[in-house]
Amino acid sequence: MIGYVTLGTNDLARGVKFYDAVCGEFGVKRMMDDDTFIAWGEPGGAPGVGLTKPFDGNPATVGNGVMVALEAKDEAQVQRVYEIALANGGTCEGPPGERFPGFYAAYFRDPDGNKLNAYVMSMG
To answer: How sure is the predictor about 2, in pLDDT bands with cuts at 50, 70 and 90?
Structure first.
């Protein structure tokens, strides 16, 4: 159903460094790339993430209550993604840990303030 999610940026070069690193941990690379828009993922694969300067020319802003969740393969990958995010200009919104039984997640923001998480769900 969801093909990709697009987040706004005011500094594409800074954002690219962050998303190249985070998406690389998930094994995905850029699938679309031009001067104002870059997307990571695999055509025909799982949903991707795009980063763009707003088309209307106004500054990018963060949506209150908006978050992109990135599904990890295990708790160790959640930890790695969190560490990669922080090492590449991200900020902590909640360190890795179990949020409720069967749901382990870490929350962080990209350099523009967009909120993301890496999670693994083992509820059955």
So the answer is: confident
